[in-house]
User: Fold these one by one.
Assistant:
Number 1:
Amino acid sequence: MTAPPAPSQPSGALARYEAVIGIEVHCQLRTASKMFCGCSNTYADDPPNTHTCPVCLGLPGALPVINKRAVEHVLATGAAIEATTPPATRWDRKNYFYPDLPKGYQISQYDLPLAANGRLSFQTSEGEVTIGITRAHLEEDTAKLVHGTDEAGRRVSLIDFNRSGAPLMEIVTDPDVRSAEQARRYAEELQALLRAIGASDADMERGQMRVEANISLRPRGTEPFGTRVEVKNMNSFRSVERAIAFEIERQAAALDAGETLTQDTRGWNEDRGMTYVMRSKEDSHDYRYFPEPDLPPLRVDADWLASIRAGLPELPAARRARYQADLGLSGYDAAVIVADAQATVLFEDARSSEPNADPKALANWVTGAFLGLLKMDPEAAGRVEASELADLVRRVGAGELSGTNAKEVFAAHAADGATVASIVEARGFRQISDSGALGAVIDDVIAANPKAVADFQAGKPVLGFFVGQVMKATRGQANAALVQEAVRGRLEGDPGS
Ligand code: ADP
Ligand code: MG
Ligand code: ZN
């Protein structure tokens, strides 16, 4: 007898090589104004170059002023990932030339980040994983280049300065990540964390959270790191996982063929499902970092840090644990709810409005009907009121409303915001749990379907068919569990049921 392969046994390239991956995330911080000036930091739908001033246009002589809220977001992130914050930090200039950077340098933090030596834990299909976080620092975003053609058909690159000087937090992991799945899960967990503490909306598709992965391979059982490649342009969690999986295979094939890898920056082409060379990689000494002379060093006093730490909300990991331990949710349901900020708020608010509603039933509605709707029709999902959902779940639990009718009520509520009570009233929904009333309908359905009765007697699974017919006859109002029992009883020859 041969033993089945262990589920965690790596396949393909990962059987020969171990992947070493470090992840850099840039996220746009949620603040009213930009990092070093008073321009509004909310510009997504505004015309280009309508949120600018001498500071964020990089005009000579303009002086930066530190945005306190942005600093607090990084300190809160640091506290949430159990990082340490130095008592004093400063700003540094990272020098390089690019048209989206008019000053010729980016104000960033080099050797004294606001947060260092943190960690983040999360679940994967192979169990819990903890990734070390090297640092989280604060910097300013660049302007945005828009490539196109002018009226004369010439190719032009336009610059939109609305994003220039927006506050950005960069979070860099240790090279602890070992697979494409771990990388995706890390990014998902980080997003949930940033949203929970309100530091960032962290929407990948909207560029509010940009994930870059450094990937290298080493032969299994060896220590030294191989040559790494940095991959950019991954615009969804799925692309993060796909791009890394591709890159692992590509590097393994190259190593197997005896090739030497080069330390490139590569882009991810979503349509073709492959990475391509963008440029060869700069080293940090090429940036000629030096302390920013226009800004004072920043002292982080212990009281400030302590009050930020004390103000942290419940973090995703703690919330998932509470949902499982106190509310009896499955690990899956807890993870699905906590991964989505809207689902979490809906679930929490519904529980406050109807504390006796069954948490598991409520979780089913949130993970199923609500998150399904959120994907299909976010506007309709936005109309779902926590108190109405709670009322719906209570009615189903109390046997007043059938599951089938409840789905219809949910859809009707989301369609225009009408209350559950008014929909139930208007449609005359009332669950029939009275066996006398149901009995007559069941008898009719059995009499009308001799073939299905024969199928039942031949051992075929036709109970669901009968339940469906009874539901149809009662406009979905029958108590499905009762119907199933009654049909079974009758067909098995127990006239009393
Ligand atoms: P850079 O200055 O180019 O951004 P860093 O030293 O800050 O480089 O590292 C960037 C990321 O790359 C970090 O997440 C780090 O853990 C990771 N990293 C460093 N060396 C390797 C390697 N050989 N293979 C994979 N990842 C690596
Ligand atoms: Mg980097
Ligand atoms: Zn400005």
Note: Confidence is low (pLDDT under 50) at residues 1-9.
Number 2:
Amino acid sequence: MGYTIAQKIIAAHLVSGEMKVGCEIGLRIDQTLTQDATGTMAYLEFEAMGVPRVKTERSVAYIDHNTLQTGFENADDHRFIQTVCKKHGIYYSRPGNGICHQIHLERFGIPGKTLIGSDSHTPTGGGLGMLAMGAGGMDVAVAMGGGEYFITMPKMVRINLHGQLGPYVSAKDVILEVLRIMSVKGGVGKIVEYSGDGVQTLSVPERATITNMGAELGASTSIFPSDETTRKFMAAQGRESDWVALASDPDADYDEEYDIDLSALRPLAACPHSPDNVRPVAELAAEGIKVDQVCIGSCTNSSLLDMLRVAEILRGRTVHPEVSLAIAPGSKQVYNMLADCGALSVMIAAGARILECACGPCIGMGQSPNSAGVSLRTFNRNFEGRSGTADGQIYLVSPETAAAAALTGCFTDPTTLGDAVKVDMPDKFLINDNLIVAPADEQDMDSVEIKRGPNIKPFPKADAMPEDIACKVLLKVGDNITTDHIMPAGAKILPYRSNIPFLANFCFTRCDEQFPDRCREHGSGVIVGGSNYGQGSSREHAALVPLYLGIKAVVAKSFARIHAANLINAGIIPLTFENEADYDKIEQMDEVRLDNIRSVIAAGEQPVLTNVTKGETYRLSTAFSERQRDMLLAGGLLNYTREKNQ
Ligand code: MIC
Ligand code: SF4
């Protein structure tokens, strides 16, 4: 049997385990990336491991999330990361250089290599044919130290793209269609590969839009072949020598297959408050929905191609008087090229508010919409409250749909705009890596001093797992709880990503304001969740903060991949109901017990949850690998690594 693209890369990087669906495999990681909101913690963890210099082929730290600098905290964290990079062999992308995924695609990504990043949209690199995955900061720290990255061998999904996109229909509409078909849970435990004659019609940035937002499917990652288009893109980035061809074998076996006719696709929008709540833009336009704000940018849609298309739509026109249009180019390369070709001037003349190239509004760093405001964004997540306005109505759309609404003030099907805008990929990108700082040479690294600001507080440490756990259900939540519910981001909180005690005041407050106080009052507890618990971001803070608040276990119908791994890394036990109906029987504040949990987990048996309040027992199920079991028993990855090295 032949291999899929992902299986080929996995086989070439397999360090341990068997490539059998459901088995744990350990992979050698060629490249890592971090961003600043997760990076500070990841580098504190890396320091705790005591490895002097990273062992990867390339590790890059980007500053793109926390760029508001409303106090000293962000700037201190940037300085900390910069000095760690210099000392330990990591490239440092300065603030102003742009969004990690966009830059990594432009300047560092290599087909056939493995990449993990402490950001859930790391699969963007799949647009270049990389096996690129989001991971918790601790996993990235371990990979930087030369350790394996462990995943469960995923199933393979093939999406066959046929035909060619019509005018004003774009890559964003492709991934929205995939989300409509598969839902935010549809990709869990799977890798999504794209193939078919439609692939060659898509440029690398368009492919990257699709793999980027594949994160919203819950997929381990998404990947495109590396072909002539990829070669041309890399040549235009001055990196042709890094190119290799990559395709699946003709007899490769896929567990699931879908077909999408690109020619028949129409503009789509993900309606509030989930990326899979997809409807045709034409329908929303027919309803006459008024638009208050339009934001164009983010790691999904901030390439030069996207920006040039927007500029063409805006050319010679003025943004509707009742709309605020914000545009953030994805990288300095994009920004510079927009300036050089005059497209930036077109945007400014139309009335766009140009933001620095960074995540910005996507992570709630400014540009929150007005009360109940309708905001059309080219981003990838529209979870409730993420924009910073609790009742904001966020729709995820393509740059074309966004630009059309910015001009008309209401939902507008861009295909009604008239002649197609024609924009070509450049033969040569503007290459200037002057905002990427190389690390110190090996002989100079010892003299580099790490600068630590007062906002950096030690991270919480878990204890070894006790024999019995007896506590209360301190919170019960429903399905599809996101990491934005567990540990919100936004301008007010994000500066404190290296200060877990402070962050604890905001844990789950979007669901229940009393949660942090209740945890403090009771000292320890468990959380009960529905299905797809922990979807969204890779932020390990969504595990470290509950750990700090005394959470010992989360019992849910099912978990999102990265979050489940983060819980185990933190020493919190993720447990699933064997019988989902038991979820309905438990109530918040019920007294529960996990008797002999340590022995049960150690023996690889299935635990039982006793509900003391209701006088009932519920069978739970776990599928921990031996390594995960040992980690949980030790109280998380750091304790486990320390024990192993003793
Ligand atoms: C996000 O889009 O939610 C983030 C902010 O990029 C996160 C990382 C974080 O929480 O720092 C992600 O996607 O992993
Ligand atoms: Fe940044 Fe938004 Fe992309 Fe996350 S999804 S990396 S916040 S642009």
Note: The first strand starts at residue 14 and ends at 16.
